[in-house]
Amino acid sequence: MAKILISPSKYLQGAGEMKNIGTYAAKCGKKALVLISQGGYRRIGAMIEESFAGSDCDVVFDYFNGECCESEINRLVAIVKEKGCDLVIGVGGGKIFDTAKAVAYYAETPVFICPTIASTDAPCSALSVVYTEEGVFERYLFLPANPNLVLMDTDIIVKSPVRLTVAGMGDALATYFEARACQRSGATSCAGGKTTEAAMALAKLCFDTLMEEGVKAKIALEAGVCTPAVEKVIEANTLLSGIGFESAGLAGAHAIHNGFTVLEECHHMYHGEKVAFGTLTQLVLENVPLDELEDIILWCIEVGLPVTLAELGAGNVTDDQLMEVAKTACAENDTLHNMPFEVTPETVFAAIKAADAYGRYYLDEEE
């Protein structure tokens, strides 16, 4: 099988870039559907409209209904066709990107992704995660191409809640460890091939950037400013993690995240927060050396990522409920089977319980 690396056609990151979105759109289409939340429109809708007013591309706005599910995708595909749009632009967070990418695929148009937060590595990928209307993981939709443009306006991202960028660090934390597991097992990546050295290098750079810059970036964001550390973390969360996970592969952490979606108690937690705990669980499954496990747990505590079930909102769940999480994580079509050894619901259940115990131990040590 061939080694494959895929990426967005263009990645742009800088202050004030959203003001240029109309100019970029005009190079790709004549009429754009902008998918945005009502809150997002209130904050930056006027800026986007002004950008399009000075361009040769018309714009239609539609508000996102809140879930990347079949009914929402079908609703928006119908609007694209009805309005005669030839470009889809997703502005906002992960579920909006996933929906915009799916809509563009079914409507056969290019797609631009314009995150207003740096909370996941979804923007760059040729992948949409589809959920039920109730928010339970349903399936991965693998797309034939990555977005035509990913635009990160750092002025906008710095104004978003700090917790969202920290959640992005949680999502990006998994990238190197899942890539390493896939390389060891020879698994097929989301790109449909074996892992390239380039993807592994980007995954490792992603991890190194988080360890070096993560705490500095969080403190700067809490002060409301964009520093070089913040710029590096935004790139790690989005571009490095995006190419890393897709072209190197997913393994335990994201499958365990998918398991946690069956718990109503965790629905208020962000994707990256659950992935961070999934990463700790994967490291327990791998029985990594104590110093590696300790470094990751202490870093998570320092940046504010959950290291216990209680911090995930699942402190009072029963063992039966946790076994359901483990069984869902081990679903036949999920990525847990990319680990370089056999994984069962019983070993995942034990790893979740142990990860929680380690988290509680180190939280007590810190106090």
Defining key terms:
single chain, 367 residues, alpha/beta, Rossmann fold, Dehydroquinate synthase-like, alpha domain, 2 domains, six-stranded parallel β-sheet, two-stranded antiparallel sheet, 13 helices, 8 strands, 12% strand
Structure, explained:
The chain has helices spanning 21-26, 38-53, 70-83, 94-107, 154-158, 162-185, 197-222, 228-248, 252-260, 271-286, 290-303, 319-329, 345-366; strands at 11-14, 31-36, 58-63, 87-92, 111-115, 127-131, 137-142, 149-153. The chain has 367 residues and is α/β, with parallel strands linked by helices. The strands form two sheets. It has a six-stranded parallel β-sheet with strand order 1-8-5-4-2-3, with helices on both faces. Strands 6-7 form a two-stranded antiparallel sheet. A hairpin with a 5-residue loop joins β6 (127-131) and β7 (137-142). α6 runs antiparallel to α7 (197-222) and α10 crosses α13 (345-366).
Structure in a nutshell:
The chain has 367 residues and is an alpha/beta fold. The chain contains 13 helices and eight strands.
How are the SSEs placed, and which strands pair?
Layout: E1 11-14, H1 21-26, E2 31-36, H2 38-53, E3 58-63, H3 70-83, E4 87-92, H4 94-107, E5 111-115, E6 127-131, E7 137-142, E8 149-153, H5 154-158, H6 162-185, H7 197-222, H8 228-248, H9 252-260, H10 271-286, H11 290-303, H12 319-329, H13 345-366
Parallel strand pairs: 1-8, 2-3, 2-4, 4-5, 5-8
Antiparallel strand pairs: 6-7
Helix pairs in contact: 3-4, 6-7, 6-8, 6-10, 7-8, 9-10, 9-12, 10-11, 10-13, 11-13, 12-13
